[in-house]
Design a protein that fits this description.
The complex is a heterodimer of chains A (205) and B (305).
Chain A: H1 7-13, E1 40-45, H2 49-61, E2 69-75, H3 85-89, E3 95-98, E4 105-106, H4 109-117, E5 124-128, H5 131-144, E6 147-151, E7 168-170, E8 186-188, E9 196-198
Parallel strand pairs in A: 1-2, 1-5, 2-3, 3-4, 5-6
Antiparallel strand pairs in A: 6-9, 7-8
Helix pairs in contact in A: 4-5
Chain B: E1 7-9, E2 12-14, E3 18-20, H1 29-32, E4 42-44, E5 61-64, E6 67-70, H2 79-91, E7 96-101, H3 106-117, E8 124-128, H4 139-142, H5 145-158, E9 163-166, H6 174-183, E10 188-191, E11 195-197, E12 200-201, E13 206-207, E14 214-217, H7 222-233, E15 240-242, H8 249-258, E16 262-265, H9 268-271, H10 275-289
Parallel strand pairs in B: 3-4, 3-16, 4-7, 7-8, 8-9, 9-10, 10-15, 15-16
Antiparallel strand pairs in B: 1-2, 5-6, 6-14, 11-14, 12-13
Helix pairs in contact in B: 3-5, 5-6, 7-8, 8-10
Classes of the chains: A alpha/beta (205), B alpha/beta (305).
Chain lengths: 205, 305
């Protein structure tokens, strides 16, 4: 599932059923499996829903009760909300929200996440959505000293680690020696060292 | 009929004339998981600097019409880590390993050349004197005859491997730079590096790259590159390695007909990791179709009249 963002995705969208396409993958790291012993929140914004749906599905198939997971599914409006019926089929009781209130609660994924976090002590958050949302999620987690995993978006020229074009700034490792350009950041490639990063790892702009 | 794809660049035998361009192959680990990189004529590493470099912050790339702009900023592991961690990996493969070096001062090129002189398994050094994406050095050397010649002379004095000078197209007359590096001992020339360009986001009224400007590559620059390769190959006596927007075998053939003894494939690797192999196969098909026994027989064979 994809959103039409540029010419590549526009070309993909123009394909008709039955046509052949070259696919190259899987690439990158993916989310760690949901740990059933932890209190877990899955926070999906827009096109970020499918990866978290499959993460939840995997957990349910491995025997985890769907009620052990809180699933937040948000979008700008009802029209942009992806097939949330699938979440109910899985036995989840998702919290649906839209920015304009046309479906579910009115508010962003971050608003709902904040409400969900308030009464809890220890919780692990899995988040996927636009980077602006992930940034807010990361700040919330840092404030509560909570752990989590964020799946980032990036434009990728190659997708398999050779060009460094998709790299994001992360905190430099403590053992990094002197560098030529004396940067206060380290770079990690979203395509193969991501797209999933731990909470607190990324240096947001 | 057996077709001989091998070529010679400054005493280095390449099993075929297709190499991967610097910055478009990292240090080979990623591509080696996709195909047998021993099938390549050679590989050119990401440009190394004496100390490691993180590179520019994002956004580092932007798509343009028929091409892309990048401002990576010479991200690399540094010469030491390359020698201890990356080179042993590359030595396992039966392909020419060409090490690209870049610096902001002559002294850095010299120190790296001395380190590489002690190493086995390096076919040649490609001196990147043309990176458009660092504030100091790089392009400063490649932009003028005298400093270009001087840095190549200093590298040559210490090098145990043949030295390839990689030239910038961002100059008034690339032929003059080519003559200068050859007069100072360059064993071969590779060209072209990227063309300086930029893109502006009109809504935000900001540059699309964090570094403001970047290097343009891809099909957009191919005709420019081809003309420069033709001019340089017709002037200097050393072998020329051509690059700039080579996406297919027919592009590669054009460069060879223009006078390139080998080609480097760069941006095409981003679209399709298998592009270099497809170009090798397509080159063989072209030679068969034209009843050529050796790829060497098409080098510089474009009709002049």
């Amino acid at each position: 599932m994809f959103r039409i963002y540029g010419s590549g995705t526009a070309q993909m969208a123009a394909r008709r059923p039955g046509e052949l396409m070259h696919l190259f993958g899987p690439l990158g790291n993916g989310f760690p499996a949901v740990d059933g012993n932890l209190d877990v929140i899955l926070a999906a914004g827009g096109i970020g829903l499918p990866p978290l749906y499959f993460l939840a599905k995997d957990a349910v198939e491995k025997g985890l009760s769907p009620h052990k997971m809180t699933f937040i599914a948000g979008a700008k409006s009802k029209l942009e909300l992806l097939n949330e019926a699938r979440l109910f089929e899985l036995g989840l009781r998702p919290v649906i929200c839209t920015d304009d209130g046309t479906a579910g609660r009115r508010g962003t994924v971050v608003d709902v996440l904040e409400q969900e976090l308030a009464p809890r002590q220890k919780v692990t958050v899995y988040a996927c959505g636009p980077n602006a949302m992930l940034r807010e999620v990361d700040l919330l987690l840092a404030r509560g000293n909570l752990s989590g995993f964020l799946s980032l978006e990036a434009l990728m020229p190659c997708g398999y680690g050779i060009c460094s074009g998709c790299a994001v700034r992360v905190h430099p490792p403590a053992d990094r020696g002197p560098t030529d350009d004396r940067c206060d950041y380290h770079l990690k490639r979203v395509c193969i060292e991501g797209p999933v990063f731990s909470a607190g790892e990324v240096m947001w702009d | 009929m057996m077709i001989d794809l091998s070529v010679n660049i400054a005493g280095v035998r390449l099993k075929n004339p297709v190499l991967t361009a610097s910055g478009c192959f990292s240090y080979g680990e990623e591509a080696s998981e996709i195909y047998d990189i021993s099938r390549l004529g050679g590989i050119v590493t990401k440009s190394l600097t004496y100390l490691p470099r993180e590179g520019h912050p994002p956004p580092k790339v932007v798509e343009t019409d028929s091409g892309m702009l990048n401002a990576i900023g010479l991200s690399n592991v540094g010469i030491d880590k390359f020698i201890f961690e990356k080179l042993p990996f590359l030595r396992q493969f039966d392909t020419a390993c060409i090490v690209s070096i870049a610096g902001s001062r002559v002294e850095e090129y010299v120190k790296m050349t001395e380190r590489l002189a002690e190493c086995d398994g390096i076919a040649a050094i490609e001196a990147n004197i043309s990176c458009p994406n660092v504030d100091e050095g790089g392009l400063e050397f490649g932009a003028y005859r005298e400093p270009a010649g001087r840095v190549i002379a200093e590298i040559k004095r210490r090098a145990k491997q043949p030295v390839i000078a990689k030239l910038s197209p961002n100059v008034t007359d690339i032929v003059e730079i080519a003559k200068s590096v050859v007069a100072n001992g360059a064993d071969a020339i590779s060209l072209i590096n990227t063309l300086v360009g930029t893109v502006i986001d009109i809504e935000k009224r900001s540059f699309k790259l964090s570094n403001k400007c970047g290097g343009l590559s891809g099909p957009a620059i191919r005709p420019v590159a081809l003309a420069m390769v033709y001019k340089v190959a017709n002037t200097v006596k050393v072998p020329v390695i051509g690059m700039g927007g080579i996406m297919t075998a027919s592009d590669a053939v054009q460069f060879m007909l223009a006078g390139a003894s080998a080609v480097e494939v760069g941006t095409a690797c981003f679209i399709d990791p298998m592009a270099p192999l497809k170009i090798i196969d397509g080159l063989r098909d072209y030679l068969a179709r034209h009843h050529e026994k050796s790829v060497k027989d098409i080098i510089g064979k474009v009709r002049r009249s």
